[in-house]
Amino acid sequence: MSLLLSPLFLRHGVAALQDELARLADIAQGLATGDWPPGYDPNDAVLLQSLLPTLREATNAPLTIELLRSKPLQFFFHLFPDYLRRHDAALTSEDRCEIQRSLDEYQRLTGIRP
Known about the structure:
The protein has 6 helices and 2 strands. With 114 residues, it is mostly helical. The protein has one domain (3-110). Helix 1 packs antiparallel against helix 2.
């Protein structure tokens, strides 16, 4: 099983990752050691950061993903609902359709709802 992600989706994926990494960095700056808010894990930033180089390189051509149930990929796809809410006004209908198509295909192939 593999998933083909379009350059348009991947450009939004890079933006979603950068948004989340900035959010995690802001949280980390305000924390004392071990004083983590619910749902925060400093390892999430490392995991998400590992995706950026591959995604940045793939924004000019489609990318085929084989390991659909990997933890980094699951984290990545779960960024999109919030990304869509925060950036709705700036997204074109083409953007929204392509993002939704990719999310639907991911869910169809994995059974995991982003």
